[in-house]
Design goal:
The protein has seven helices and ten strands. By secondary structure, the chain is α+β, with helices and mostly antiparallel strands.
């Protein structure tokens, strides 16, 4: 059970039972008392009003009018915000940059340390550069919203990714690859992956990818991708690290 699932179960239990002890909650979600105490602290930080009554017959009580006041963002949701800002900055088109950076700093401050760690690993796979003027983008389409959640799992857990792909001639095939990097050459975004069937790297335009699925089973090793001199990691683009150390 993840921390999010566990904390949701704690809230449900408190709403249903009225009063619960730390020991009861620990048994219900199969966690230690120390973990439950940390979860209660996290829930309070998020806006839930949880009263603690000491002594015999006491326990934890959730205010029936209590609601969550801070948003719980997934890694993919925060990553979408970060790369949107990063791609606009890379293209030299980021109005109100100071406000955007301040907002991202507040989001980062509110995130748990394990989520920050995942985001840094995710961002380490992201690169930006300039699109060559001869590249034809007349058929540029929209990207599938399912891409980022699938990418999150595939990149962080080193899982194969399977998807439908439409090439420049309109031919559709099914690909299974090892995702290694994401490359933004605004306005075109690419998935850079090792293709085991071809024993080589391939660049897949993200707007041509459909129905991405993470493949369960064997993992793969991270490979070093060679980019030309015009491509830079987003984490260090412009001398500015997106997430602070």
């Amino acid at each position: 059970m993840s921390s999010r699932q566990r904390q949701a179960a704690i809230v449900r239990s408190l709403r249903r039972n009225g009063t619960s002890t730390i020991g009861d909650l620990a048994m219900q979600v199969d966690a230690s008392r120390r973990t439950i105490l940390r979860d209660i602290s996290t829930l309070r930080d998020e806006g839930f009003v949880i009263h603690s009554e000491p002594g015999r017959g006491g326990g934890l009580q959730l205010d029936p009018q209590s609601v969550q006041t801070s948003a719980r963002l997934s890694v993919a949701e925060v990553f979408a915000l970060l790369i949107s800002v990063a791609s606009m900055r890379a293209a030299g088109n980021l109005p109100f940059a100071g406000l955007a950076d301040a907002g991202l700093a507040k989001i980062e401050k509110a995130l748990p340390s394990e989520k920050i760690k995942d985001l840094r690993r995710f961002l380490d796979c992201l690169y930006v550069g300039q699109l060559a003027p001869q590249v034809d983008i007349s058929d540029l389409g929209t990207m599938d919203d399912a891409l980022l959640p699938a990418f999150e799992t595939a990149f962080l857990d080193l899982r194969h990714l399977r998807f439908g792909y439409r090439d420049a001639k309109g031919n559709v095939s099914t690909r299974e690859v090892e995702p290694q990097a994401m490359l933004i050459l605004s306005p075109v975004w690419y998935l850079v992956a090792w293709d085991p069937a071809r024993s080589d790297f391939r660049h897949f335009r993200m707007d041509r990818i459909s129905q991405p699925q993470v493949v369960e089973g064997a993992t793969f090793r991270r490979r070093h991708v060679l980019f030309d001199d015009t491509v830079r990691p987003v984490q260090r683009h412009g001398g500015k690290r997106i997430l602070t150390d």
